[in-house]
Amino acid sequence: MAKLIKLFHTSTRYYSGVSGNIKARKYVLTKYFNGEPKKSDFKIVEEELPELKDGEILTEAEYLSVDPYMRAYMIGYKLPTDMIGGQVAKIIESRNEKFPVGKYVVGQFGWRTHTVCNPHKPLNQVFMPTLLLNLGSHPVSLGLGILGMPGNTSYFGLKEICKPKSGETIVITGAAGAVGSHVGQIGKILGCRVIGFAGTDEKCEYLTKELGFDHAFNYKTTNIRDALKEGAPKRVDCYFDNVGGEISSTIMNYMNHYGRVAVCGSISSYNDSILPKVSILQPAIVFKELKVEGFLVNRWINRWEEGINANLNWLDEGKLKYQEKIYHGFDNMVDALIGILKGENTGKAVVKVK
Ligand SMILES: NC(=O)c1ccc[n+]([C@@H]2O[C@H](COP(=O)([O-])OP(=O)(O)OC[C@H]3O[C@@H](n4cnc5c(N)ncnc54)[C@H](OP(=O)(O)O)[C@@H]3O)[C@@H](O)[C@H]2O)c1
């Protein structure tokens, strides 16, 4: 169909008929994960896209996010189901003047190349597609990382759950990942002593030499209790728990009175079908009067921009650094998901669609 270009109100262009010509590619999960995700758990299918109605936009994905929660959440969906996930996408057709062609949106569109949606009608219960803030010279992919969901997880999780005070000691597991590496840097900005646990010596070196962590230990090769004695001589006031399992029990037993634990995730067992048994925690929680609180970042959906702007300001001031692990190609989504679950990434992992 011929591509018509019309003027919409004063300046917004919209292209009528593009959507009818484009087929989306998307991942459909056809088998529940058993252990590590596998390519054979998915099929990639093509989908016809409808012509846009008033208020709708057509987007083309540039970066897709791969996150640990994807491994954990899919058990809650009836199969077959479209794969979930966030993406940064460019608007390539619009019948919505607030979402003009050429702008970027961050949306929970799932693992798919093209999407038609009305951004004012939520695709899921929590996250509406939003225009990506002007990131200046920063890459748009940061909308999935330090200037997006993981950034806000770090910002709100640390500040609101751990409530660290200057001079206190924070311990972070999963410390070289998207959330952990960011939490540690905010901890340093707030004047704390920051100790990280990560899975390779290279990651630990990055945390101390590049990001300013006071100590970082390879949890695969170090005795955790000895590492805590060395890195946290005044014991631990705040624990940001990304991994769960026995390492978390050891850390919580090494905390100070009135310590605070932000339980963010438990990636150490996401691929396990039988959950591990770990040392009992109640004595430490009772006798040290610990506050242990789980959270989901969407608790702060009404303060979303506050977190993004705080992180953007720190980034612009040179106080926040980041690394991205960029996988290439829509066909490599599963490899990317497998990769983060076994620690291939330092910082945020994203897939560049083309
Ligand atoms: N509550 C929320 O709202 C919320 C939001 C976002 C993320 N999260 C959670 O936060 C945690 C970190 O997420 P992220 O996006 O920042 O992922 P990430 O840390 O960038 O990637 C996952 C990392 O986990 C580590 N890992 C894998 N297996 C492990 C194991 N058995 N023990 C310890 N570490 C292991 C790997 O690093 P190593 O090389 O160090 O092993 C890997 O690089 C996850 O648990 C996630 O589910 C929660």
TrEMBL record:
One Pfam family matching this protein: ADH_N_2
GO terms of biological process kind: prostaglandin metabolic process
GO terms for cellular component: cytoplasm
EC category name: oxidoreductase
Keywords for this protein: Acetylation, Cytoplasm, Fatty acid metabolism, Hydroxylation, Lipid metabolism, NADP, Oxidoreductase, Phosphoprotein, Prostaglandin metabolism
Ranges for domain Enoyl reductase (ER): 39-351
InterPro entries, sorted: ADH-like_C, ADH_N_2, ER, GroES-like_sf, MDR_fam, NAD(P)-bd_dom_sf, PTGR1
Keyword Cytoplasm belongs to the record: yes
Membership in a protein family: Belongs to the NADP-dependent oxidoreductase L4BD family.
Protein name: Prostaglandin reductase 1
Organism annotation: Diatraea saccharalis (sugarcane borer)
